Amino acid sequence: MPVKLKQLAELLGLSQTTVSRALNGYPEVNAKTRQRVLKAVRETGYRPNRAAQRLATGKAYSIGLVMPIASGIGSDIHFGEFLAGLAEEAVKHDFHFVLNPSAPEDEESTFRRLAASGNVDGLFLAHMRANDPRIAMLKSLSIPFIVHGRSIGGSKDYPFLDIDNTAAFYEATRLLIQLGHRRIALINGQEHLAFAIRRKKGVTRALKEWGLDLDETLVHHSVMTDGYGYRSMERFLMQPNPPTAVLCSSTALALGAVRAINQAGLIVGTDISIIAHDDVLPMLKPENFSVPLTTTRSSLRAAGARVACRLIGGILERGTYPDQELWHPELIVRASTGPAPGK
């Protein structure tokens, strides 16, 4: 038999009103009492009546995302990892997570309908683009939101969590240059996405500091899968003057690139160096590659958890959080990077 609010209150020697207010984060309930209530909830398995809770607080205890769905949009292991972190944090706070599918051209109106429905207390936005019009749209709605990533251009006055993509790929490129590499390729994410634009900017900036230019024939933009990584690397290696090093925007792309390098009879870290961005995907650990990968690392799952923590914390008015966070990825050097051939 599920424990009811009345039984929980009797167990604690508190009124039902006090228990309810403790669970809903009312400030007049002191911290000691709230901790007693939460401990009893964990021990008894009590679950509040959502309908009653919504009537009492006006909250849906849900956060939402609009998911573009179309024939040309495939599944994305990277976004799946981000959602896993977000969902884990939502469960801790007993929040629901609402995915609202939408045709890409109808995305903004779907956000508006979701915000107006009362079914979610907050929204988050992902897959940021340059001059992204969705930010102004979300700012016009009377509902909390947070952005995973940052747009390029336009207003910078909005809550976000992002990694410093420009700095990450600048530092990775500088390492390759210091190892003597001059022909450096880039297998990047889709060209319209803000993170891919910033990563290319980081590569270009590092090369320019050494009086070098990024050869556009050594740059490919695509969906980040091993298949695209393989085809991109295969084309690079067919050039009369192939690269001696390559940067990949994900370990998924690197998996394909390494396969192409191996099939060409070349040795990773000796004949050609490779650096990938590591989103800490459980199935693609860089240290488990045949030659362990040098990476720039930042966990997508941790980012998802942090986005949920900030959004839910704001909804429940618990704690204070920075409005904008820029995480700096860690550069981890392994065996896939070595001196340029002949150096």
UniProtKB/TrEMBL annotation:
Pfam family, one: Peripla_BP_3
GO molecular function: DNA-binding transcription factor activity; transcription cis-regulatory region binding
This protein's UniProt keywords: DNA-binding
InterPro entries linked: HTH_LacI, LacI/GalR-like_sensor, Lambda_DNA-bd_dom_sf, Peripla_BP_I
Keyword RNA-binding among UniProt keywords: no
Listed name of the protein: LacI family DNA-binding transcriptional regulator
Organism: Sinorhizobium mexicanum
UniProt lineage: Bacteria, Pseudomonadati, Pseudomonadota, Alphaproteobacteria, Hyphomicrobiales
